[in-house]
Design a protein that fits this description.
Length: about 625
């Protein structure tokens, strides 16, 4: 049961004060807590093991809350009470957490039994109002499995058909094939008991055993002798068949019933034990190796670093995402591509909020202010550069914002990958995270500096060797005639009406239509439109190349150097820190080792049971 494998178990149920604890005491030959109300407040798993050699000091101990408490026959009752208080608290409340009592003693039957809280419908002072529901839930949890044998303890003086424990057992065992009834206090209500157990009105498939409870300070030997005398001499009880009376008969019946159901369940139990054992061994082998030396730590560290670098190459360089198929945020190249496209769109959609919305007004103002003494019909370079600087300033924050977003994203990816590969080494986790953040901060600053230089270079002068500039400017100047006609209001319209200038309104320029500055402004505008397209492409292309170069440099070289320096440290002794295993891994390793040991012991126990059954029982 501890490993989630349901084993054949005798579950003892009964109404409150039906004599459950007395029956168990008689079987085990030890004293259990007594008193008014609920004495059993937690499931008490009793594992009785017969020691063939007489021992004046039986081995008795309790197991609960992950610990073992040794005790003896004289103090067992107090030890159980203290353990119960630790599990269920002081008072009269109950708990479903089990308490295991192991008794290794000469003469006791080899049995495993679970004593459950007695059924009570009316809560007394100190008990929760739903005490009946709580007890019922615990009982049903234990008696429902098909592997459970239900030992229904009934007081001789009650009507069996109205007994609450009978009603519960019939819910899960309608035919009674795995229910045995033990009738207590036979000496208190002997009249009519024979008729009750022979009529079997409540369908007890495994039959009845009638017993006499130990009274007062009787020793267990005295109680058994008095029980035998009672069923031999009492005028009513002596008529009951001797095969269904007495604690010795009950012990023998329980051992045989348990053996029978074990034989029935053994194939399934063996299969479950083997499956659980195989799964635990595989999981233990998958846990990170427990490092015991600096050389092992170095090997493990370099392996983790190599695996992390390969994952980053897949995510940020090659565009592979087999390690994170359903986590779109880890599909690096696709996400960076999306951010670059958005950056390009933002550059193109950016508007100069300080400029005029009216066509050519800004150009005319600048041309007016850059006039100088010189030959006519020459466009002043200062005018173009003034307009260019103004446009560059209008987009100057967009590249920086883009850089911040991209490197923040890359940082999240790098940290996630490093944490995934080093999760089993907490000291390595903190070091790699710290190294990644420091490295990304440096890369981000380097990109900010690069972006600022690009912006400043674009402000500095106008230059391109790209032939698209001349071709684009020439094509735009083809609209100059349409522009002139719109100024003259030919066809009574004030729109240029062709190409990219189709919806451009020039009505506000009507008063200036005869001035040369209007045509100069048109020329400057067309040159700026052609050149601005080159500038935007250049800012996107340069940014893309810069990021591709630096991300590859980050993955292939920088991340390894930064992490090695951070982890190993200036004195070269940092690897010693990762020799300490994380609490979670250490706890899991300990739990798996204990589980494997317990399962292997269980295999041996099952094998011994098979041998014992083969030698002693013939079914």
């Amino acid at each position: 049961m501890q490993e989630g494998i349901q084993l054949p178990t005798i579950v003892v149920v009964g109404d409150q004060s039906s004599g459950k604890s007395s029956v168990l005491e008689s079987l085990a030959g030890i004293s259990l807590p007594r008193g008014q109300g609920i004495c059993t407040r937690v499931p008490l798993i009793m594992r009785l093991q017969n020691h063939p050699n007489p021992n004046p000091n039986p081995e008795i101990f309790l197991e609960f809350n992950g610990k073992t408490v040794n005790t003896d026959e004289e103090n067992i009752s107090d030890a159980i009470s203290l353990a119960t208080e630790e599990i269920a608290g002081k008072g009269k409340g109950i708990s479903n957490k089990p308490l295991t009592l192991v008794v290794k003693k000469n003469g006791v039957p080899d049995l495993t039994m679970v004593d459950l809280p007695g059924i009570t419908r009316v809560p007394v002072h100190g008990q929760p109002d739903d005490i009946y529901e709580q007890i019922s839930k615990i009982i049903m949890e234990f008696i429902t499995p098909e592997e459970s044998i239900i030992l229904n303890v009934l007081s001789a003086g009650i009507d069996f058909s109205t007994c609450e424990s009978i009603r519960m057992s019939q819910k899960v065992d309608k035919t009674g094939q795995r229910t045995l009834a033990v009738v207590t206090k036979a000496d208190k209500s002997p009249e009519g008991l024979l008729e009750k157990v022979t009529a079997d009105d409540v369908s007890i498939g495994l039959g009845y055993v009638c017993v006499r409870n130990r009274i007062g300070d009787e020793s267990y030997e005295e109680a058994r002798a008095e029980e035998a005398r009672l069923f031999d001499t009492h005028r009513h009880l002596s008529k009951i068949n001797k095969s269904i009376v007495g604690i010795p008969v009950l012990a023998e019946r329980l051992v045989k019933i348990q053996a029978t159901i074990i034989v029935k369940c053994l194939p399934g139990i063996v299969t479950k034990i083997n499956e659980k054992l195989t799964a635990n061994v595989e999981e233990l082998n998958k846990l990170p190796k427990h490092l015991t030396s600096v050389s092992e730590a170095m090997t493990t560290f370099m392996y983790i670093l190599g695996c992390a670098k390969e994952s980053l190459r897949k995510i940020l360089i090659r565009g592979e995402f087999d390690e994170y198929p359903d986590e779109k945020e880890m599909h690096g190249t696709a996400r960076v591509f999306e951010m670059l496209n958005k950056y390009s769109e933002e550059l193109r959609s950016a508007e100069d909020t300080n400029g005029s919305e009216k066509f050519l007004i800004d150009e005319i103002k600048v041309l007016e202010e850059t006039k100088a003494i010189g030959l006519p019909n020459f466009l002043p370079k200062a005018a173009f550069l003034t307009l260019l600087k103004k446009k560059v300033r209008s987009i100057s924050t967009i590249p920086s914002d883009f850089i911040d977003k991209v490197w923040s994203y890359v940082e999240n990816v790098v940290v996630s990958v490093l944490l995934r590969h080093s999760v089993n080494y907490p000291q390595l986790v903190s070091s790699t995270r710290r190294a990644a953040k420091k490295l990304i901060a440096k890369m981000k600053q380097r990109s900010f500096d690069y972006v600022n230089d690009i912006v400043e270079m674009e402000k500095l002068t106008d230059y391109t060797c790209n032939p698209d500039y001349s071709a684009s400017w020439s094509k735009l100047m083809d609209h100059q005639e349409d522009f002139k006609k719109a100024l003259q209001r030919f066809y009574n319209v004030s729109y240029i009406g062709s190409g990219v200038l189709e919806k451009t309104d020039v009505a506000h320029l009507y008063e200036l239509r005869e001035k040369d500055i209007v045509q100069e402004a048109f020329d400057v505008k067309m040159r700026m439109m052609a050149y601005w397209e080159i500038v935007l492409r250049r800012m996107v292309d340069n940014m893309a190349l810069h990021l591709l170069f630096n991300v590859q440099k980050l993955v292939n070289k920088d991340v390894e150097m930064e992490i090695v320096n951070e982890v190993i440290g200036p004195k070269g002794n940092g690897l010693e820190n990762i020799l300490e295993e994380s609490p979670s891994v250490a706890g899991r390793r300990h739990k798996l080792k204990n589980s494997i040991e317990l399962l292997r012991e269980s295999k041996d126990v099952v094998a011994n049971i098979i041998d014992m059954i083969s030698d002693n029982f013939d079914y």
